[in-house]
Amino acid sequence: MSRLMDPPPKFLPPEWRLANQIHYGNAEAERSRSERLTAESKRLIEESGMAAKRMQQDANKRLEQRIHDIKFWRTELDQKLEEIVQEIAVLISYKSRVERALESCAEPLRVALQCMTERQRRVSIDLVHDDVERELMKEREVIEGVTSLLNRTLEQTNEQIRLNRSAKYYLEKDLRDKFQAEQIDGFCSILTNTSPNIDNVTSQTSLAVPGATVTPEEWETFSNINILKAEREKNNSLSLRALVDSLLEQTAADMRRQHNAMGTALRLQVQETKTAKGQLEDHLVKVLSEVASQECNLEALRVAIEDKAGPLKVAQTRLSARSQRPSIELCHDPVQVRLLSEVQELTAHIKRLREAQAQSEMELLALTRSQLILEEEIQVKSHSLYIDEVICTQLRQPISIHSF
């Protein structure tokens, strides 16, 4: 119990000094470390501040450059969009021209077909495959060919308008995207360290990387492809417009030329038919005159035959009476010779007169048939003239071939 109450053992002076030296060393080491940490921290603060400022300045420059690039491409896209919009409007007007030209083909084709139908009503020998019919068939072929060509051109124009609108759609979409991107980058470019807008943005959001990112080269290539596509479609549209101009002019010229050729053939045919009708009428007048002359001739022959009947009967009666002479008086004297000769000659004359009468009757029948044929042909020509000069000519008068 006495050992427990003893005071603690005392350190020796060397131990005391050693302990003090240890405390001094530890304090000096801690102070040195603290000074180094303070210096390092100061250097790190300055370095991070400079780095943050430098990076923010670099980011601002890159944002400015990016906004400049976006504005450049927006300008290019705007210019190309304006060109393609204008080209679409012009091409639509060309489409209207083609449609009007196509509509204008309907009436000439209807008239040509109706003229062909009307001319089928010609009769007899006038139902001929003449120049008018050939020109009508050619006119129908020309109009149908023009119609087919214009239909194909209209389809090409509609397709080109669709392609132009497709190029316009992609240009507008690209412009909308770039406008939105410029708004976002413009917002980013005005942000400062003291901006209130940055309080609600977390660090994780700023580090997030979209899954569908593209490289700057791909970004430029995308817009360039849209511009090139629009330029290509615009050039195709220009070529198509030049083709439409040439086509409309050529088709109108072809139809106008054939229309004029058909009109010329119709006029010549009408003139030729009138000439033929006039000649038939002249011949009819001559035939009628000859019929009257032949009827007079036939009457004269009948009278001549009747006139010869009396002298023949007298001669025959004389011969019969003289045949009753008695005996030697039945002499073949000059009177007998004359009477025999008279009977023979009168009989011969009457025979020739009857033959002439028969021939005259046959000729009269032939003249009558010729008269009927001529009158029928004149009616045929009159009918043909009515079809060509009245119906077909009046049908074709309103037709006018225009260039659209």
Automatic annotation (TrEMBL):
GO annotation, cellular component aspect: axoneme; microtubule cytoskeleton; nucleus
UniProt-annotated location(s): Cytoplasm, Cytoskeleton, Cilium axoneme; Cytoplasm, Cytoskeleton, Flagellum axoneme
Keywords from the UniProt entry: Cell projection, Cilium, Coiled coil, Cytoplasm, Cytoskeleton, Flagellum
GO annotation, biological process: cilium assembly; cilium movement involved in cell motility
Source species, domain of life: Eukaryota
Family annotation (InterPro entries): Tektin-like, Tektins
Entry function: Microtubule inner protein (MIP) part of the dynein-decorated doublet microtubules (DMTs) in cilia and flagellar axoneme. Forms filamentous polymers in the walls of ciliary and flagellar microtubules.
Family: Belongs to the tektin family.
Name under which the protein is recorded: Tektin
Protein's gene: TEKT1
